[in-house]
Specification:
single chain; 365 residues; alpha/beta; 4-stranded mixed beta sheet; 45% helix
């Protein structure tokens, strides 16, 4: 299988190394710059940690056309906030039969990606899949080296068209056997953000001082853990009202990392990937706020408003994040309008799912 990895950051390094060590053909792309120049000259990745080996990449390039021309699977490992821009740029080079994986997609990532491609005037018959979370906990100690601290045991997956998921998962099974089809294109956007968003806001004084502390363990006191669990219950209320399958954050930790069940504070202390090399951010201009709130929190808040479900803790954290970052994160968010969804789509989701939207967009085949 011919894979192309778009993005040579932490996730891109890990994915390229993992896919190649699994025996697949791998092309790695990144926008022009020193990072990709180094990898073009040194087209291999030394993988350490959960996987070990030297991954000799088949191609490294800064040309999108060159990267995606022959790809069967295109795995996008950039941050979710640039998916729209990347979709516009890659649209002219896509062709029928290709599969695009957003790992991860944020709320409605596959819908937004496909809609953006159509807005450019291109109509390739492709399958776009997305996951609820990044597969790896990883670092890049230096270009060409990937430290994979963890690989999640279970990752939720969905696709548009919905019935394309079985074929897509089969094509990826050699690399990602833990991907599970949840058959709901909005489900992957309902994963919890409370670790990062509430963790940043409720540790704002320490972050403002650029203090050194473990973000997941030192930054989550028993009281903060209780707040996060209550905040997560607000997210679950919206998902349950829409009939979307999702899990409480403690169950997610148990499934992803085999952590014994308990209260959130204790479970985080018991999660191996969080015990070391998990420093807190030293600025509020960070993806935990600037990426996760617009792409995941804001659309859920809008859905909650339509359904009449209060989310006071989530809204408080979002309001405070706007103040801390100096950015109107609501305006930057993936609103239903940007996703092409109507309020009626949300009200009838439990009974009709996404099918009215897919029918309007011609994406139900």
């Amino acid at each position: 299988m011919k894979w192309t990895i778009l993005g040579a950051g932490k996730g891109g390094h890990a994915a390229a190394g993992h896919v190649k060590l699994a025996g697949e053909e791998v092309t790695l792309w990144n926008r022009p710059g020193d990072k990709i120049d180094y990898l073009i000259q040194n087209p291999h990745i030394e993988v350490k940690g959960k996987l070990e080996g030297r991954a000799e990449l088949d191609k490294v390039t800064d040309s999108l056309e060159d990267a995606v021309r022959d790809a069967e699977i295109i795995s996008i490992k950039t941050t979710t906030d640039i998916h729209t821009d990347l979709a516009r740029k890659v649209a002219p080079y896509l062709h029928d039969g290709q599969r695009v994986l957003l790992n991860c997609g944020g709320m409605g990532g596959s819908l937004l990606f496909l809609q953006t491609i159509r807005d450019t005037g291109y109509t390739p018959r492709i399958i776009v899949g997305e996951t609820d979370t990044c597969t790896y906990g990883c670092k890049v100690p230096k270009p060409g080296e990937s430290l994979i601290k963890s690989i999640k045991n279970r990752v939720d997956f969905s696709s548009v068209p919905i019935d394309g998921a079985e074929e897509f998962l089969k094509a990826m099974s050699n690399v990602y056997p833990q991907f599970r089809d949840v058959k709901e294109p909005l489900a992957s956007g309902f994963d919890s953000t409370c670790f990062h968003t509430a963790g940043m806001v409720l540790n704002r004084d320490r972050i403002a001082r650029a203090e050194d502390f473990n973000f997941y363990i030192d930054g989550v006191t028993p009281e903060i853990g209780e707040f996060m669990e209550a905040m997560d219950s607000e997210r679950l209320a919206v998902a349950n009202a829409m009939g979307i399958p999702t899990q409480h954050i403690t169950q997610w930790l148990n499934d992803a990392y085999d952590v014994p069940m308990g209260d959130l504070h204790q479970m985080l202390k018991d999660t191996p990937p969080y015990q070391h090399n998990a420093p807190a951010p030293k600025t509020f201009q960070h993806r935990y706020l600037l990426e996760e709130i617009p792409t995941k929190v804001v659309p859920v808040l809008e859905m909650a408003t339509i359904l009449g479900i209060p989310m006071p803790k989530t809204r408080m954290i979002t309001d405070m994040a706007c103040d801390l970052t100096g950015v109107d994160l609501y305006a930057e968010g993936r609103t239903l309008d940007k996703l092409g969804l109507l309020p009626q789509d949300i009200r009838t989701y439990r009974s009709e799912g996404l099918h009215p939207y897919l029918k309007r967009q011609g994406l139900n085949i």
